[in-house]
Design a protein that fits this description.
Length: 699
């Protein structure tokens, strides 16, 4: 709950708000601030007040943990603090350090003045939690910063740095030296200058571009399809122009409360905590030693190897790139260069920075040359025998302390560790996603023998590479790809039963997936999984239903975008999928051969049949301990597979739907189709009326 203290510096009363780690407004804190404010008002020796955060100085806003549980009735809230500040006869200056976000900024906006240290960031990130600011931010910010700046900050949630915030009129001064000294000096100047002391609420919002709302609305319709909060933010800022201040604040609050009660907000708040929980790994703590990774090598310069090398270069870590095929290495270097040149051309990166990063990637022609690096990532073809051979050679050439990781998508990393017994504490999986330099997800595959030090080192490295690292256990496909199998299986069945690629893709993008599965297949290349299916054909149970649609496409050389045709066709140089009657005919043939009577299939059935297998396999993965938490599975699917963040991830979405409903649907589908055996954990939770979140809480 924290507290607040009042100290005097001459005529300036300094209120310090203390609620570690980020001074969030937990129950009890607003009451403490009100009490200190009242004391400062009552003390005749105090002529001005400074409000600042203790610790690192952050004001992270409302306590997100307190949402969803009733606020104690007797306790004042932030919305009692704000008018008390505005009523203060003595000028109040907010002194901001670190992050000033959400309700923290709203409190600062109610002060007469705001000053900040140079590295401070100010923002209204509430939209990322599924609601607009709810303590007057949408009404005060346009009055201080102008409508255009405020709208962008509130709708996108992106914070401004101190210099930009001062430029926009949000801050009155940026302090380079000691913040407290600067704040006291500033407050003394205000005492000397005398009243009146300005309040944001008394100003008129300045609108320069009358088209801004229409343009933003249009942008949101494309970018935030299916979501309420971004549009709600826009509506609140519009209100600032339409209604008098107090009415505007009331309207904002009503919209805030409506959004706060939504499934979207519950999902996004879940993701906020899931992103923080995923960093917590049993057996790894602050005391676990972490090795410095100062150089790395990547073996195999194909699609993945080149992207992984780029990740290291982007993080400023020198990396050697090796391929047994000199032409492949040459192609990789050209692709890396062209990727950087594209970023320079789009203004994302300076030309000199791009050259410096390219300079960090050193092509090498033999495996012996990886010697001396701290970490080697193997990214050769997905073949066990080949990987084993590469691991044996690496073991003999690498430094004793070096870590060897495999980027395998499916193979048994325990077996790879077993190949190099002396080093098995320093072997694990680092499963990047394609394109590796873009996708944020990294599955860190924990072998049975990996040491805590190696795991901690790779998790820290993941953060340095800008990735969200999720620990996964060893199994076929780890977390993400293992779940994907049931999803793609249903796509094949639905096609045979009557849905077209467009219908399947639109049903799932309508649900919120970033791309539909047929378009994803065409993008990734249908030949990759085809080769795998052919290699594993002998393992398939011939009595189980199998869709031959994807195989047939590949037999025609339709590998997806790279061959100009897959589930869709593509004009040369274009990535736009065009429905192809040839594919419809092929699917109809396959259906006829298997004696399936085709029918119209609605979007709801498509969504249910594609997504419930994810939940079911997710439940098994959780039960087996392959994922540490259900919320880790959510992080995997949001960051690696385009599952909508605002639905909270696969497992959270299932919780929201109700596990009894999911279980009943799976059982019903299982009455007429193969592959619908409910996972034991799902059955148990459904019968007990529990959720995946309950499992996480109990862990
Ligand atoms: N409420 C509750 N807990 C919070 C919190 C908040 N607003 N902000 C951070 N925390 C917790 C985190 O969960 C984490 O807890 P843990 O150690 O138990 O996992 C701890 O504080 C430290 O947080 P981070 O690991 O995220 O620390 P960083 O230094 O990386 O980041 C930060 C700090 C930028 C402040 C980041 O935590 C953040 O973005 N916080 C959320 C800010 C936000 O969205 N504020 C708006 C809240 S809603 C609101 O104010 C409504 C109002 O309009 C009425
Ligand atoms: P790729 O076929 O594009 O590249 C593999 C490269 O390895 C080729 O350039 C080949 O010449 C090289 N190679 C083969 N044997 C070698 C050896 N002995 N020494 C050095 N180089 C050798 O394959 P891709 O797609 O990059 O996959 C690599 C690994 O990454 C596989 O294990 C795959 O399962 C995994 N992966 C692939 C993803 C994808 O989307 N393509 C995603 C995540 C992981």
């Amino acid at each position: 709950m924290g507290g607040a203290s009042l100290e005097r510096e001459g005529a300036v009363g300094v209120i310090t708000i203390d609620n570690p780690p980020v001074n969030a407004m937990s129950p009890g804190l607003p009451g403490a601030i009100l009490a200190r404010l009242a004391e400062a008002q009552a003390d005749d020796a105090v002529e001005a007040v400074v409000l600042r955060g203790g610790g690192k100085g952050a004001f992270a806003g409302a306590d997100i943990r307190s949402f969803g549980t009733p606020w104690p009735e007797s306790e004042p809230t932030l919305r009692d603090v704000i008018p008390a500040i505005e009523r203060s006869a003595k000028p109040v200056t907010a002194a901001l350090a670190g992050y000033c976000l959400g309700g923290g900024l709203e409190m600062a906006l109610s002060c007469h003045y705001r000053i900040a240290s140079r590295k401070t960031q100010v923002g209204q990130p509430e939209v990322a939690l599924g609601f607009p600011p709810g303590a007057g931010g949408t009404q005060r910010l346009p009055r201080l910063a102008g409508v255009e700046t405020a709208l962008a900050m509130i709708v996108d949630g992106t914070p401004l740095g101190a210099a930009e915030a001062a430029e926009a009129g949000i801050l009155d001064r940026v302090i380079d030296g000691d913040l407290l000294e600067g704040a006291v000096a500033f407050a003394q100047e205000r005492i000397a200058a005398g009243a009146p002391h300005p309040l944001a609420r008394d100003r008129t919002p300045l609108l320069k571009d009358p088209e801004i709302f229409a343009a933003t609305r249009e942008r949101l319709e494309r970018r935030a399809r299916g979501q309420r909060a971004p549009i709600a933010c826009l509506e609140c800022v519009e209100v600032a122009l339409e209604l008098p201040f107090d009415e505007g604040v009331r309207r904002e609050r009503a919209i805030f409360e409506e959004c706060m009660a939504s499934a979207e907000s519950r999902a996004l708040r879940h993701v906020f905590f899931a992103e923080r929980a995923v960093r917590k790994v049993p057996g790894i703590g602050k005391e676990t030693p972490v090795r410095a990774i100062e150089s790395a090598a990547v073996v195999g310069a194909g699609t993945m190897g080149r992207g992984i090398a780029t990740c290291f270069a982007n993080a400023g870590i020198p990396v050697r790139l090796m391929d047994s095929d000199p032409l492949a290495l040459e192609r990789a270097l050209a692709a890396i260069r062209s990727d950087y040149e594209g970023r320079v051309a789009r203004g994302r990166l300076g030309a000199a920075d791009a050259e410096a990063r390219i300079g960090l990637i050193e092509p090498i022609e033999s495996l012996e040359r990886v010697a001396g690096t701290d970490l080697v990532i193997e990214a050769v073809f997905e073949e066990m025998a080949l990987k084993e051979e590469v691991f044996r050679t690496l073991d003999s050439v690498c430094d004793e302390g070096a870590i060897i990781a495999s980027n395998t998508s499916y193979l048994d990393v325990n077996r790879l560790a077993g190949i190099v017994p002396r080093r098995r504490g320093r072997v694990l999986g680092m499963h990047f996603f394609s394109p590796a330099q873009v996708m944020r997800l990294l599955e860190v595959v924990r072998t049975d023998s990996v040491s805590p030090e190696t795991l901690a080192t790779v998790l820290a490295l993941g953060r340095r590479l800008g990735k969200i690292a999720v620990v996964a256990g060893v199994c076929h496909g780890f977390i993400g790809n293992r779940m994907l199998e049931g999803y793609t299986r249903q796509v094949g069945f639905l096609l045979e039963e009557g849905a077209s690629p467009v219908e399947i893709d639109s049903a799932l993008t309508g649900f919120g997936m970033a791309m539909g599965p047929c378009a994803v297949g065409d993008l990734a290349g249908l030949d990759v999984s085809w080769r795998k299916r052919k290699a594993n054909a002998h393992l398939r149970d011939p009595s189980e239903r199998y869709s031959a649609v994807a195989d047939r496409l590949c037999e025609l050389g339709r590998f997806g975008q790279k061959t100009g045709a897959g589930y869709y066709r593509y004009e040369p140089g274009s990535r736009t999928p065009i429905p192809d009657p040839e594919v419809d005919a092929l699917i109809a043939d396959v259906a006829a051969e298997t004696g399936i009577n085709r029918r119209a299939i609605g979007a709801d059935e498509i969504v249910e049949r594609c997504l419930y297998p994810l939940v079911n396999e997710g439940a098994r993965i959780l039960d087996e301990g392959i994922a540490l938490r259900a919320s880790d599975i959510d992080i995997v699917w949001i960051n690696g597979y385009g599952f909508p963040r605002w639905r909270g991830g696969v497992m959270r979405w299932a919780d929201e739907t109700g596990l009894d409903a999911v279980h009943a649907a799976i059982a019903r589908l299982g009455e007429s189709q193969d592959h619908w055996e409910p996972a034991p954990l799902l059955s148990r939770l459904a019968s007990e009326g529990k959720s995946f979140a309950d499992v996480d809480r109990a862990a």
